[in-house]
Amino acid sequence: MTTPTPLTYRRAGLTLAGDHWTAPPATPPRGTTVLLHGVGQTRHSWHHTAARLAEHGWTALTLDARGHGDSDWAHPHDYTVDHLVDDLVHITGTLDDPPVLIGASMGGITALLAHADHTIARALVLVDIAPQINPAGAARILDFMTRHRDGFATLDEAAAAIAAYNPHRNRPATPHGLRKNLRQHRDGRWRWHWDPQLLQFISDTAGLTDLTTRMDTAAQQITIPTLLIRGELSDIVNHDSVDHLLHHIPTAHTATVTNTAHMVAGDDNDIFTNHLIDFLNHLLPLPRAELRKRSGPGT
User: Fold this and answer.
1) d(Cα 91, Cα 298) in Å, to the nearest integer?
2) pTM strictly above 0.90
3) Angle of the 269-281 helix axis to the 47-55 helix axis, nearest 10
4) How far apart are CA 155 and CA 66, in angstroms?
């Protein structure tokens, strides 16, 4: 499996962490992908997908959003979607070719708005997110995130909570993989690898209504190839969401991953990645001048 190179970006006084995956030397370059995780996740949720993309000739950049993973925590008022969009626009501005933006949930919202406002992408992949979502599903996510603010006594306790939230997903034999999403604090408790101040923004009902309207407007400006990959069991994106998206983005196609919920990439990573690679394989190649190799990622 390809091994990534860690990198950092400086943005508005913050250090943002990422991993840079490159194709093997003998593999013809296909272009660049930027993968953006969902709220409460980290760049490690894309680990296997990014490795497979690299094997198929795609440079893959996986990022920890501000307040997540190894990226710095921001001022409590600096977690708006506009801050996330600004971060993404800055980072894509350091690339040599227009990337394919691949965003799950929060990452998909960021990618959609960023391209609509700044025309930065070659293609767009939305992972179980759309302008029209099921409010009950969003409330369920918020409930899960707020319920465990004081963390867990053990990794096994955290694994049990996740299993209760995602009963359809096979529980790993050991909980050690959760170390990528949890930090053990001085009191011995394990807490999520994100800033709890994020909750004040994702729980803003009025802000969510405004964001939905903004996403609707943004979707009508998208003319690049677009793919929506949704989970069959998702309580966020339903059939009405899909129809609404296809009406607003004529260049869009959809794919459904069976027996998966909102965390599509984690629930069935191989099938999800197969859909993604099939979409990428059908993109028109970039002109040779736009496939220049970068001398060094990160700024």
Assistant:
1) 8
2) yes
3) 40
4) 24
| Look-up of token digits 């409010």 | 135
The Cα–Cα gap between 160 and 166 comes to: 10
For strand 252-257 and strand 182-184, is the pairing parallel, antiparallel, or unpaired? Answer: unpaired
Per-residue model confidence as pLDDT tens digits over 173-221: 788 888 888 989 999 999 999 998 888 777 776 778 889 999 999 999 9
Cα 193 from Cα 159, distance rounded (Å): 15
- The encoded tokens of residue 86 equal 């600004």
First to last CA, the chain: 26
User: Around Cβ 240, how many Cβ atoms within 10 Å?
Assistant: 12
Strands across the sheet containing 31-36: 5-11, 14-21, 58-63, 31-36, 100-104, 123-127, 226-231, 252-257
What value does the CA radius of gyration of the chain take, rounded to a whole number of Å? 18
In percent, the amount of the chain with pLDDT more than 70 equals 95
Instruction: Note the pLDDT tens digit of each residue in 287-296.
Output: 655 554 443 4
Query: How many Å apart are CA 87 and CA 215, to the nearest integer?
Result: 18
pLDDT tens track for 60-90:
999 999 999 999 999 999 999 999 999 999 9
**Average pLDDT of 95-123?**
97
At residue 1, the pLDDT reads 62
Distance between CA atoms of residues 213 and 199, nearest Å: 21
Helix/strand/coil for 269 = helix
- Distance, in Å, from the CA atom of 81 to the CA atom of 119, rounded to the nearest integer, reads 17
Tokens of 141: 């996510």
User: Rounded CA gap, 209 and 205, in Å?
Assistant: 6
Burial (0-12, 13-18, 19+ Cβ within 10 Å), 50: buried
Percent of the chain with pLDDT over 90: 70
**Per-residue confidence (pLDDT) for residue 295, from 0 to 100:** 36
Instruction: Report the Cα 26 to chain-centroid distance in Å.
Output: 29
Tokens 């409460």, residue?
40
- The Cα–Cα gap between 201 and 84 comes to 12
